[in-house]
Structures are given as C-alpha cells and as structure tokens.
Design goal:
Blueprint: E1 11-12, H1 18-31, E2 35-37, H2 45-55, E3 63-68, H3 78-89, E4 94-99, H4 110-122, E5 126-132, H5 136-146, E6 151-157, H6 165-173, E7 177-181, H7 193-202, H8 206-216, E8 220-221, H9 228-235, H10 244-251
Parallel strand pairs: 1-2, 2-3, 3-4, 4-5, 5-6, 6-7, 7-8
Helix pairs in contact: 1-2, 1-9, 2-3, 4-5, 7-8
Length: about 270
C-alpha cells in the first residue's frame, strides 16, 4: 500500500456521541473495520480514542482521520488544536487530518491554513493531509499553496442523488482521492426502486449497492451505523461487483439533491 493510500472503506462517527460512539467503534473494529473517521466538531474524539484503546487493535493497524474545525484555522491555532485532538484520541499521530469546511467568509486564507497543516505533517502529527467540502476553486487554491501531491483527499457529500461528477473528475485529474460521505443520503437511497432492484439481483442490500457503486468509481466511503448488524452488512459491500449496466442505471439517478449545505460554511458548489 502506498503511503498516500486511503483505505476504501471506513467507519464514520458523525452525529454519534457518548456511549453510542464507543459501541459503534468497538463493534466496527471487532468486525474488521480499520479506518475510523472523526472530527473536532463531532465532540467525540475522546470516546473514539477510548474505544480504540479498549479494542486491543494495534494502532499501526488502524487508519485514523480527524478534521480541524473552522475556529482553529489561523496559523497559531491549527497545530495546538490538532495536538488537543491527538491527546483525546490517545495517539501521537493521526493518519489523515482534513480542513473540515472552507474558512467562513474567507477569514483565514487557504494558503495560511494549508501551510499550517503542511507544518503539522512535517512535525509528524499527521501522516497525510487533505480537505473536506472544498469546491474546485478552493481545491485549486489548496494545490497552489502546498502542491496536489500533498493533498490526499477531498471528502465531500456524494451519493446516487448527488454524484458531484465535475468535482470528482477534477480531483482525480490531480491525483487527489475522493472520499464520499453521506453515501446513503441519510437512508433516502435505500428506498430507491433502482437500488432495490439491483440489490435483489445480487442478493444484497440497497446500502451495499450504494457503497459498492461509490467504491467502483474509486471513491472511499465512511458509512456510520449504531447497529452491529448494519455495520457487518455494510462491510460486505467490499465484495460486491456491479455490472457496467447497473453502474449506468445508478448514474442516471443524479438529481443534484444536496443534503448538507450549511449557510455559513458551504462554498459555491460546482
């Protein structure tokens, strides 16, 4: 595995708090998940750290991602905030640190926070760096600041109803991996007749179909669940192969249906 590779399948922890996130991460690790994705704003880094510590899985066998919150983008704040995250996560280094959203109103220039993030990497606090919720223009600024080869991924909302093709094509043209979050569109796509029909043909679940669809395009996925049975089922998506015709059927579901668009944070999407 190249040092730049992000595992294609991971465990998201968005919206999970307290004992719920501890159980989810513990179950996920027991089932074979090896990537855990958290963020400063989720307020669960300490619980994620506890679940990992209790799991008995060796740190070097895990891929741990966190995200810097917008309040910590200034050059003098980013690294101290990451060190706090590391303490909560009980580790000396995370595998991937992302800028969570663009700086509201451009308050902190892209070059400033990307420079600080690159410094964090140089200091060994994070193995890889990247961005989240960046449009093409912001990705270009980030590339200008640190170079495309330094940006491991752009993590964005991406599912059958919002396929983000223009953004994904740009990222891939730069050698930047795409991580899909909300791949199941908060469960909306699980009721989709096309996904249900494809799932039936494979004796699979609609969730497995959506996840396999994303992975077959080269995207990483980080679905979350509080139910052990769903965690286990989602993991099986790694073994599902959809036909070209089925991939085309899902491609036709694009409808620009964006679910995450916070007014203060979201950029002008492509």
């Amino acid at each position: 595995m190249s040092t730049h590779t992000i595992p294609p399948f991971g465990l998201g922890t968005y919206r999970l708090k307290g004992q719920t996130v501890i159980d989810s991460v513990r179950n996920g690790l027991a089932l074979g998940y090896r990537l855990v994705d958290t963020a400063q704003i989720y307020g669960n880094e300490a619980e994620v750290g506890q679940a990992i510590a209790d799991s008995g899985v060796a740190r070097q066998d895990l891929f741990l991602t966190t995200k810097i919150w917008v309040d910590h983008y200034a050059a003098d704040k980013l690294i101290p905030s990451l060190k706090e995250s590391l303490a909560k996560l009980r580790t000396e280094q995370v595998d991937l640190t992302l800028i969570h959203w663009p700086s509201p109103g451009g308050a902190v220039p892209v070059a400033e926070f990307m420079g600080a993030l690159a410094q964090a990497k140089a200091q060994g606090l994070t193995r890889l760096i990247g961005v989240s919720n960046f449009n093409i223009a912001l990705m270009q600024e980030a590339i200008a600041a640190v170079g495309a080869q330094e940006i491991a991924t752009n993590q964005v909302e991406l599912h059958p109803y919002l396929q983000n093709r223009k953004l994904a094509a740009f990222a891939q043209s730069q050698g930047i991996a795409v991580t899909s979050y909300m791949t199941l569109a908060y469960g909306e796509v699980l009721k989709d007749p096309v996904l249900l029909q494809i799932a039936g043909a494979h004796a699979a679940t609609p969730a497995q179909v959506a996840l396999a669809w994303a992975m077959q395009q080269g995207y990483a996925v980080i679905p979350s669940s509080t139910q052990r049975v769903n965690l286990e089922s989602n993991l099986q998506a790694r073994h599902l192969k959809l036909s070209a015709a089925q991939m085309e059927q899902i491609a036709a579901l694009e409808r620009g249906h964006r679910l995450v668009n916070p007014e203060r944070l979201a950029p002008a999407w492509d």
